[in-house]
Amino acid sequence: MGDKAGEKKDVWQGTLALMVLKTLQGMGPLHGYGIARRIEQTSGDQLMVNYGTLYPALLKLEQEGYVSSEWGFSDNNRKAKYYKLTRAGRKQLNKEEREWEQTTAILARFLAPGGERA
Amino acid sequence: MRQLRAWFTRLGGLFGKERRERELSVEMESHLKMHVEDNLRAGMTPEQARREALLKLGGVEQTKEEYRARRGLPFLETSFRDLYFAARVLHKNPGFTSIVVLTLAIGIGANTAIFGLANAAFFRPLPYPHAERLAFLWQNNRRTGEAEGLVSYPNFSDWRSQSHSFADMAFFMSGKSILTSKGGDPEFISGGLVSVNFFSVLGVSPAIGRSFSPDEQIPGHANVSVISYHFWRTRFGGDPQVLGRSVVAANGEKHTVIGVMPPGFSFPDKTDVWTPREVGGFFKTKARQYPNQHVIGRLNPGVTWTQAQAELDTIAARLAAEYPAIDGGVGVRIVPLRQQLTQKVSQGLVLLWAAIAGVLLIACLNAANLILARAAGRAKEISIRYSLGATRSRIIKQFLCESLLLASMAAAAGILLAVWILNLVAKLNPDLAKLSGSVFDPRVLAYTIAITGLTSLVCGLLPALSAPKVDLSRALREASSGHAAPSAQALRKLLIVAQVSLAFVLLVGSGLLVRSLWRIFAVPPGFDAEHVLTLHVYWPGAPANSTDEKKRNSLYMELLARLRALPGVISAGATSNVLFPSEMYKVPFVIEGQPTEPSGQRPFLPNGEATPDYFRVMGIPLMHGRVFTRADTIQDAPPVIIIDETMAQRYWPNEEPIGKRLKFDDPNFRSPWFTVIGVVGDVRQEGLEQPAGLVSYVPSDGEWADDLVLRSRNDPRTIVAAVREQVRSVDRNLAVANVGVLSDLLSLRESQRKFNALLLGSLASVALLLAAIGIYGTVSYWVKQRTAEIGIRMALGADQKNIFRLAVARGMILIFAGLVVGFAGALAGTRLIASLLFGVTAYDPATFCAIAILLLLASLAACWIPARRATRVDPLVALRYE
Asked: Phi/psi class of residue B852: alpha, beta or left (left: φ > 0; alpha: ψ in -120 to 50)?
């Protein structure tokens, strides 16, 4: 594998799913390539070794009912499959967002300078 | 929840694959194109753009694979594919497939059949509510050594009133009764004399009418009956108005039918008519030393058997203290119902099951061996698979699929076999047929599935595990029938050794049992059963008063005289029983001049009546003294008695028994002193494996000697019609029943043993056959493998004989190893069946040697054919063969 690729970290499948949902929320319906590009952008190029991992993840989300897919045409009139957030997806996104915030808050207390509270 | 949805979608993903593949390809393609466009816009060259896009994607095929894995259920998909492939492989090798399926089918089928029997015996629910709380109670007499003896009424009554562990107890006696029927032949039915609470203890109520009421045990009020469903349908034609009709016994007693039991109920022993036992007088109070009842009890809920046993032990001890002469040393033995019913059968069944499980094991080993042999021949195929990226677990899965298919086919065939076997069993052995269960009982089917699964595991894993990751280059260069890995070779040899040793153990076991059977038949029964006809005569409806008795006696005597005069009859005699010593009258006795035990401890002497000719008819030899004469049978003749050899030996070991006297201690009549006038040979009536018991005979005065025996010149069946005619001509009122040929009656008793020996023998033969097949397969394969080597040897000058010997030697080494292991195994194992053997020890050298020779010969035969094939190898062809 490439050496440059080794610098970028791998992404958990779960976090990947979260990022996909968030992206779709912000960007509206988007095709796979677009989502990949957008995620890379948002993370500041720190993540994503290969775009291929996106497709199984998208399939999983679709199977779970969080996104729905539809064939459409891109800007350049290319046939592409567009993914859209569903209501269930929206709810799941909110739920996971809250959970992440909670987790980060708790961890922050532990990791804050000065250590734990007595 | 979401997971479930995902799962279902994935299941759906198994269908419509092509369309999705196309879609995915289009999506991937468009993804790449978009990426390339962006790259181009960013200034890369077309090649750079494409390369970068592909790199970022991470490999199209890989992505597609992961996608596919996500889309469907890969495990299922590969399994289907494996099964399909396995089916094709098996289809391409019909010979191999059919042998394996056949051997496994035999193993699985036999196991299923045996489990079906065991299931019926041990698990089938008994038809009584809460049957697990029912038990038999026996008197257990330390002084006479009887472990499970009948109970006397007063003892029963005390146990019942003093026990708190038992909700209730009932007693019963069963035997054969004769019923008259209008105008036809009399019926012999099974009747039961029971306590009035009998049905309530069992927990079953009559379907029609009612059960007995407590005052129906009062003497004089007991002329009622409850009949069985079967009897109701056959005798009374299912008459809905049956209540109030009566059943008439041979002696004229009428019993009114008050109830009909539900279908299927016939406790204790195919009983058709139950009558209440009159409880009063002597029976109730003074008969403590005359045990003649069976007792059943129902445990109270919450009480354990141990608690109940402890309580009854206390009660028994109390009774022993109160009545030391009678009940001293008498204890109580509780045997739960199921145990009682399966006692006789269980040991045999377990043995059979063990043997059949052994056969299945041999069959599995055989199949595994064959599969291994084939696996070795597929080394090339396996290495190609590895090179294409298969993991070890996938290869194993492939093998397991094959063995699963084989085992399933074998199971299907095996179930058919099991059904056939059970039908055969029902026909050959009516005793066992009582227990013969259906193969389609869920428990049995579950067992079948379990052993099928186990079989496929054993047959599949063994070869799979021994097929290691072969060195790729070596295997690809190797000849197609290449050498198997050393570990596989060793495993195959081990399998053969195991098969041979198992077969040896099974053969020895059944050999010992078969010899036991021979020994039993070799034991002289003490009488000559050839050409003897037996029948029972009686006078239906004859009331018991003295003038009629006299008339009947003279009629019987006249009948005997007439029968003797028949042309086909050599001699005729009569006795009070034939071959049913358990129904023989057993009475305590004392011998003049010898120390007597207190009443209640006295030994019992079975006593029967016999006419003077009886001994001659039966062919029982006279050892000392004389037999009865006419003079002994008249009214006031001095009382005489004839005893058998065992009795003479036991009580007068060093003196002449003739002239000695003994007396009976019977409450029913005042016994005079009987003088011994003769000693006859022992008669083994109870069955040829029991030692001859004491038996005594008194001269017949006609009343009880209504079992006639006739020795005929030719086949006894030819004189039956003439006999019946004579009976009718003596007096039209006399009736005949239970006409039988003595030799038939005897052989009936031996049928159980014969059946077991036959079964075990066939099993062992199957085991032998399987082992032989295994050996044949191994040597065959060795020859095929070594074709090149054989060719070289022949080219170098070895002649056919050498090759032949070489091939055979390869096989025989394994056989010897197997025999050694088998020997050890048999020595250890036969101890388990020692109790079933008769006249032959568990280490009988003759049997062991004979079986060893048999196995050797069979193995030699199995080696023969492949060895001959080895000699026909054409060296030129062999050397060129690659």
From this structure: alpha
> Does residue B725 have a pLDDT over 60?
yes
Does the beta-carbon distance from A80 to B71 stay under 8 Å? no
Q: Which residue has the tokens 């290869």?
A: B395
Helix (H, G, I), strand (E, B) or coil at B275: strand
Query: How many CB atoms within 10 Å of residue B650?
Result: 11
Per-residue pLDDT of B21-79, as tens digits, reads: 888 888 888 888 888 988 888 888 888 888 888 888 877 787 888 788 777 777 777 78
pLDDT greater than 50 at residue A3: no
* Secondary-structure breakdown of chain B: helix, strand, coil percentages, each rounded to the nearest 5: 55, 15, 25
Q: What dihedral do alpha carbons B861, B866, B872, B876 form, nearest 10°? A: -160
**Apex CA A65: angle with CA A61 and CA A68, to 5°?**
80
Q: Are B216 and B255 in contact (CB under 8 A)?
A: no
Residue B588 and residue B603 in contact, taking contact as beta carbons nearer than 8 Å: yes
Rounded CA separation A16/A24 (Å): 12
Q: Tell me, yes or no, if A79 comes closer than 8 A to chain B by beta carbon.
A: yes
The C-alpha atoms of residue B410 and residue B107 are separated, in whole angstroms, by: 9
Residue of B354, B615, B375 whose CA lies nearest to B495: B375
Angstrom distance (rounded) from CA A35 to CA B459: 52
CA gap A84, B781 in Å, rounded: 64
The number of residues in chain B equals 882
Q: For residue B70, list chain A residues with Cβ-Cβ distance below 8 A.
A: 56, 59-60, 63
pLDDT at position B579 over 60: no
Among residues of chain B, what percentage have pLDDT more than 90? 6
Alpha carbon separation from B20 to B15, B23, B40, B64, B74 (Å, rounded): 9, 5, 30, 11, 15
Give the dihedral of Cα atoms B409, B411, B414, B419; nearest 10 deg. Answer: -120
Rounded to an integer, what distance in angstroms lies between the CA atom of residue B331 and that of residue B312? 8
| Shortest Cα distance, chain B CAs vs residue A33, angstroms | 5
Question: Residue B165 is encoded by which pair of tokens?
Answer: 């562990």
Q: How far apart are CA B27 and CA B16, in angstroms?
A: 17
Sole residue written with tokens 């009886």: B614
Lowest model confidence (mean pLDDT) among B258-267, B374-383, B656-665: B374-383
Helix boundaries (H) for B652-741: 720-730
pLDDT tens digits for range B795-845: 787 777 877 887 788 778 888 888 899 889 888 888 777 776 777 777 888
Bridge partners, residue A30, by sequence: A83
Instruction: Give the N- to C-terminal CA distance of chain A in Å, as an integer.
Output: 48
* Residues sharing a CB contact under 8 Å with residue A84, sequence separation 6 or more, in sequence order: A24, A28, A29, A67, A68, A69, A70
Mutation site for B-interface testing, chosen from A33, A60, A75, A76 by largest number of B Cβ within 10 Å: A33
Q: How far apart are CA B118 and CA B111, in angstroms?
A: 10
Cβ contacts of B293 within 8 Å, gap of 6 or more = B150, B151, B152, B153, B156, B171, B172, B173
The confidence score (pLDDT) of residue A24 equals: 92
Cβ under 8 Å to A: B residues 54-93: 55-60, 62-63, 66-67, 69-71
Strand ranges in B61-149 using DSSP code E only, listed in sequence order: 134-141, 146-149
Chain B hits for A56, CB-CB cut-off 8 Å, are 63, 66-67, 69-70
Peptide bond into B567 cis (omega under 30): no
Do B425 and B111 form a contact (C-beta atoms < 8 A)? no
Token pair of B685, please?
């009536």
- Please state, in angstroms and rounded to a whole number, the distance separating the CA atoms of residues B537 and B591: 34
